[in-house]
Amino acid sequence: MTTENLPQPDAEPIYQARNLVKIYRRGPQPVTAVSDVTLDIRSGQRLGIVGESGSGKSTLIRMLAALSRPTSGEIRFAGESIVGRTEAELAWLRRGVQLVFQDPRSSLDPRMRVADIIAEPLRSKIWRGSQRPDPQARVTELMRQVGLDPTDARRYPHQFSGGQRQRIAIARALAPSPKVLIADEAVSALDVSVRAQVLNLMTDLVTQHGLTLVFVSHDLAVVRHLCDTIMVMQHGRVVESGAAARVYADPQHPYTQQLLASVPRLPRTN
Ligand SMILES: Nc1ncnc2c1ncn2[C@@H]1O[C@H](COP(=O)(O)OP(=O)(O)O)[C@@H](O)[C@H]1O
Ligand SMILES: [Mg+2]
């Protein structure tokens, strides 16, 4: 894979998803979490996926990241189908797409040192047969990039604050130099002042590395800062999507209007 990440307007979209459906059949009643979602994501795009809790956002991105298999539908990443592939066949996707989750307390192994957590994506089998970066040098570089002190690399996650733990999760996600970063409510659990800092960091990193961003949040105020395109989900469907500026200025769907009406202005941090 090349490191060329600049947006190419005429290039094929990096993600193409067609008619995605996910039905969970665990309980007494089947739950249709995602219902006929079709989307394209261009290289360099910053897509915000918004909608209230339970609207299917996490289910959708888990399918995009090949962590969950669609009940039906098709997903192509960098031109290749990903549905039904084995883990070995998905190595290129595992390197190219990384995730940051809401709660670093559960996504970071408390028994591992920070250096090992960040280097984890470099140790895995996904590098078989390809050039793997030197983990130690990469950890130092990444800790600096996310605003952590590399001399803390031998500490454990509980020795860091919530915001710092999310920085660790971001460093780990960047370790294999992914093309796409998917963040699922990545700042929702943080205090307001820390949230702004981590958002600024993510904005800087996405710009510096020319990343394609998929940023999931129930909070439209957060998405507004980061994304150029907005997709609004309700009950597993996309009810509205378009340029962020347009969606905010002139929301078409009643649900989007309702979501926007309930957006508080970002509180000032004094
Ligand atoms: N593993 C699962 N098993 C059964 N139902 C699930 C599972 N994950 C999510 N759901 C259901 O699917 C719907 C969408 O959930 P989710 O994708 O988590 O929404 P969101 O991320 O927007 O809050 C909800 O009704 C949720 O209860
Ligand atoms: Mg969710």
Structure description:
With about 270 residues, the chain is α/β, with parallel strands linked by helices. The protein has one domain: 3-Layer(aba) Sandwich (Rossmann fold), CATH 3.40.50. Helices cover about 35% and strands about 25% of the residues. The protein contains ten helices and ten strands. The protein has helices at about 55-65, 90-95, 105, 115-125, 135-145, 160-175, 190-210, 220-225, 245-250, 255-260, and strands spanning about 15-25, 30-40, 45-50, 70-75, 80, 95-100, 180-185, 210-215, 230-235, 235-245. The strands form two sheets. The protein has a six-stranded mixed beta sheet, with helices on both faces. It has a four-stranded antiparallel beta sheet with strand order 2-1-4-5, with helices on one face. Strand 7 (about 180-185), helix 7 and strand 8 form a beta-alpha-beta unit. Helix 4 runs parallel beside helix 6 (about 160-175) and helix 5 (about 135-145) packs across helix 6. The structure holds adenosine-5'-diphosphate (ADP) and magnesium ion. The site of magnesium ion (MG) has 4 residues, from helix 1.
List keywords for this structure.
270 residues; alpha/beta; Rossmann fold; six-stranded mixed β-sheet; four-stranded antiparallel β-sheet; 10 helices; 10 strands; 34% helix; binds adenosine-5'-diphosphate; binds magnesium ion
